[in-house]
Amino acid sequence: MLETIKETATHLKLAAALEPKVGIILGSGLAGLTKEIDIKDSFPYTEIPNFPVSTVDGHHGELIFGYLNEIPVVAMKGRFHYYEGYSMDQLTFPIRVMKQMGIQSLILSNAAGGVNPDFQIGDIMFIYDHINLMGDNPLIGLNNNELGPRFLDMSEPYDRSIIEKAQLIAGKMNIPVKKGIYAAVSGPTYETPAEYTYIRTIGADAVGMSTIPEVIAARHMDLPCFAVSIISDLGVQGKIVEISHEDVLEAASAVEPKLAGIIKELVPQL
Q1: CA distances in angstroms from 235 to 77, 126, 178, 196, listed in the order given
Q2: What is the CATH number of the domain that holds 11?
Q3: Three-state SS string across the chain, please?
Q4: How many domains in the chain?
Q5: Range of the domain at 241
Q6: pLDDT of 33-92, one tens digit each?
Q7: What pLDDT, in 10s, does the model give residues 106-125?
Q8: Under a CB-based contact definition with an 8 Å cutoff, are residues 180 and 199 in contact?
Q9: Which residue, 94, 140, 201, 240, has most beta carbons within 10 Å?
Q10: Model-level pTM?
């Protein structure tokens, strides 16, 4: 796998006009952040050696290189998911490539269902911890010590200092934010009412179908992570309604400008 990672990273280093310092993964309905990026190069996933291809509506399948608030970044406009049939190695492959290219920190975003009764649709939640309910882990199998340790400490999966900086930025911008624990399931089905109750009972505030494998791979390589969820629907008793992927995209898109503003101001402080 390491040779494949190096092959793809070398290809992109030669093709891209800059060396990124920050990696960004844009989740469902959040691709509009790219409007804030001074784009220098973009590559469809289909043209990148060894890259998977996103199959989900709202995930555009493009790797973007440019400057966000004068900081060189690489942004995934569309991510990969376990439920698409990809292995954990495949869906975390881009993070390992970005690390090989020189990024020093990783920002992740997603749309998630809120199970905390204090949450509302449209809330922004900074993730400070997570619960992996996907039934798999990207570090299962032979370990390559060049990538990271066999047994990974996860006492701080999300960088506390970055969270504090983001909270200060949100406060100055008068944007209310929550902090919470994110649970990830395999999907692609949304949760049943009983599953929502279970996820809340074990301590989560929101649930989604991504992010955790990417964070595990990033932390394996000692990359600091900052992750944020937009609450796009509610899994709270009395507030559960039938939802669709279109509903999730619409809810995330409505809040996207606020989140984009926070990330734009955060990037220079990483």
Answers
A1: 27, 18, 17, 6
A2: 3.40.50.1580
A3: CHHHHHHHHHHHHHHCCCCCCEEEEECCCCHHHHHHCEEEEEEEHHHCCCCCCCCCCCCCCEEEEEEECCEEEEEEECCCCHHHCCCHHHHHHHHHHHHHHCCCEEEEEEEEEECCCCCCCCCEEEEEEEEECCCCCCCCCCCCCCCCCCCCCCCCCCCHHHHHHHHHHHHHCCCCCEEEEEEECCCCCCCCHHHHHHHHHCCCCEEECCCHHHHHHHHHCCCCEEEEEEEEEECCCCCCCCCCHHHHHHHHHHHHHHHHHHHHHHHHHC
A4: 1
A5: 2-269
A6: 888 899 999 999 999 999 987 665 555 689 999 999 999 999 999 889 999 999 999 999
A7: 999 999 999 999 999 999 99
A8: no
A9: 94
A10: 0.94
Q: Which one, of 136, 158, 104, lies nearest residue 213 by Cα? A: 136
Query: Could you identify the residue written with the tokens 């999300």?
Result: 158
Tokens matching residue 33 = 């952040």
The structure tokens listed for 51 are 């890259």
Instruction: Record the tokens describing residue 66, joined without a space.
Output: 């440019």
| Degrees to nearest 5, angle at CA 83 with 58 and 260 | 35
